[in-house]
Automatic annotation (TrEMBL):
<feature type="domain" description="Metalloprotease TldD/E central">
    <location>
        <begin position="116"/>
        <end position="219"/>
    </location>
</feature>
<dbReference type="Pfam" id="PF19289">
    <property type="entry name" value="PmbA_TldD_3rd"/>
</dbReference>
<dbReference type="InterPro" id="IPR036059">
    <property type="entry name" value="TldD/PmbA_sf"/>
</dbReference>
<dbReference type="GO" id="GO:0008237">
    <property type="term" value="F:metallopeptidase activity"/>
</dbReference>
<dbReference type="GO" id="GO:0005829">
    <property type="term" value="C:cytosol"/>
</dbReference>
<dbReference type="InterPro" id="IPR045570">
    <property type="entry name" value="Metalloprtase-TldD/E_cen_dom"/>
</dbReference>
<feature type="domain" description="Metalloprotease TldD/E N-terminal">
    <location>
        <begin position="23"/>
        <end position="87"/>
    </location>
</feature>
<dbReference type="InterPro" id="IPR002510">
    <property type="entry name" value="Metalloprtase-TldD/E_N"/>
</dbReference>
<feature type="domain" description="Metalloprotease TldD/E C-terminal">
    <location>
        <begin position="227"/>
        <end position="433"/>
    </location>
</feature>
<protein>
    <submittedName>
        <fullName>PmbA protein</fullName>
    </submittedName>
</protein>
<dbReference type="InterPro" id="IPR047657">
    <property type="entry name" value="PmbA"/>
</dbReference>
<comment type="similarity">
    <text>Belongs to the peptidase U62 family.</text>
</comment>
<dbReference type="Pfam" id="PF01523">
    <property type="entry name" value="PmbA_TldD_1st"/>
</dbReference>
<dbReference type="InterPro" id="IPR035068">
    <property type="entry name" value="TldD/PmbA_N"/>
</dbReference>
<dbReference type="InterPro" id="IPR045569">
    <property type="entry name" value="Metalloprtase-TldD/E_C"/>
</dbReference>
<dbReference type="Pfam" id="PF19290">
    <property type="entry name" value="PmbA_TldD_2nd"/>
</dbReference>
<dbReference type="GO" id="GO:0006508">
    <property type="term" value="P:proteolysis"/>
</dbReference>
Length: 434
């Protein structure tokens, strides 16, 4: 970290010497290793190391940025002069700035860094255990392989206002995809685990068996009949609802007036009791952080509290446009989740005479201006409260305003993806099938 700190100071000095009023430097160095194994053979191993920098400079309200794929002090003067020259010829941006920031928190309490790099033999063993477990399940006929990976990166942010902050983050991953059936009747499914610490990974063999069992259940899907019915979203796809919400309440979209929720601040847009939270301080959270991309303090924040929209997702620029203060979300959200409800998934479905359980989504199909929603899907019919026959090649449709108001969460929230939700039930969606 000391080497990055020294490099940042030198680059900031070069920017000031070139004529910048204020400047910001981001430095990042990382190493990663991955292995891909299929049908008992290692198909690919890879190791990569990167060192990158970004420099942003301001002349008054005009700003420009440059980047490089190497941290080479010999190039700092040239990069700084290039950035300043660009800033001299671009229009001023009345809302952009490099804000003052307090001293950063030490990231140690978040436990973001696992300092132990696994050997290639460990990664191969993880990939092998996942794939072999999948292939051992009767009815599995092929595999897209098992993979395992590790990475560790160190990032540093420094500004000419005096802010300097940096921390390291590690990542371990295992995934596997199994194939059931033959010919045109093949079906695939997957499972994975992604954690910051190797000790927190889910058991690789369990992942393999899960992928296999899911693939088998999808065999011989039917085309469902067109109907209006309750739709239940598996946790693997339920987080997509939060992605749509995040896009709709981003400060940039609100400032442009391009969101269907642009007038919804302070209004109930979900049912009472619903909470949607961004928590940057979750210990070992995939997206935890001690400060945001601008060095601003971060806080756990309920963007939806008791169903009510409480805040936009703001960085400094979008906050300035709207006459508000940043929410500490420069660079995006952290650990974003919909809080668990009180019903089990089984209880959530118990009264559904006919419905749809979605396990896979296809395409984007969302209109940010109107909230209209139409996406391809696959999953299972629900009949009398139980999962029934698999279905595929269907479309589900609605409007996000209505969908948000009619969401009911189950109690099975798991923090697995960075954006997470439990099983979700939404009333009155349209299923377009046969």
């Amino acid at each position: 970290m000391s080497a990055l700190h020294e490099a940042a100071e030198r680059l900031l000095k070069a920017a000031k010497a070139a004529g910048a009023d204020v400047a910001e430097v981001v430095l990042h160095e990382s190493a990663s290793v991955s292995v891909q194994r299929r049908l008992g053979k290692i198909e690919e191993t890879e190791r990569a190391e990167t060192r990158e920098l970004g420099l942003r400079v301001f002349l008054g309200r005009a700003n420009a940025s440059v980047s490089a794929s190497a941290i080479d002090p010999a190039s700092f003067t040239r990069l700084a002069e290039q950035a300043v020259a660009m800033a001299r010829v671009v229009p001023e941006d009345p809302y952009a700035e490099i804000p003052e920031a307090p001293a950063p928190l030490d990231a140690g309490f978040l436990e973001l860094d696992d300092p132990v790099e696994p050997g290639m033999d460990v990664l191969i063993a993880r990939a092998a255990a996942a794939e072999e477990a999948a292939l051992s399940v009767a009815g599995i006929t092929n595999s897209e392989g098992g993979s395992a990976s590790w990475s560790r990166g160190t990032s540093l942010l420094a500004t000419s206002h005096g802010f300097v902050g940096g921390y390291a983050r590690s990542h371990h991953g295992v995934s596997v995809t199994a194939i059931a059936g033959t010919g045109t009747q093949m079906q695939r499914d997957y499972d994975f685990s992604s954690t910051l610490h190797g000790a927190d990974l889910e058991d690789a063999a369990t992942l393999g068996r899960n992928a296999a069992e899911r693939a088998l259940k999808r065999l011989n899907p039917r085309r469902a009949q067109t109907a209006k019915l309750p739709v239940v979203f598996d946790p693997r796809v339920a987080g997509g609802m939060l992605g749509h919400l995040a896009g709709a309440i981003s400060g940039a979209a609100i400032a442009r007036g391009t969101s269907f929720l642009k007038d919804a601040l302070g209004q109930a847009i979900f049912a009472p009791g619903i909470a949607i939270i961004d928590d940057p301080f979750r210990v070992r959270g995939l997206r935890s952080r001690p400060y945001d991309r601008e060095g601003q303090p971060v806080h756990a924040r309920a963007f939806i509290e008791d169903g009510v929209l409480t805040s936009w997702i703001l960085d400094t620029r979008s906050a300035n446009q709207l006459g508000l203060k940043t929410s500490g979300n420069a660079g995006g959200l952290s650990n974003f989740y919909l809080a668990a409800g009180k019903l089990s998934p089984a209880a959530l479905m118990a009264d559904i005479a006919e419905g749809l359980y979605v396990t896979e989504m296809i395409g984007s199909g969302v209109n940010g201006l109107t909230g209209d929603y139409s996406r391809g899907a696959a999953g299972f019919m629900i009949r009398n409260g139980q999962l029934a026959e698999p279905v595929a090649e269907i479309t589900i449709a609605g409007n996000l305003k209505d969908m948000f108001l009619h969401i009911t969460p189950a109690d099975d929230l798991q923090f697995k993806r960075g954006t997470d939700a439990p099983t979700l039930r939404i009333e009155g969606m349209t299923l377009a099938g046969a």
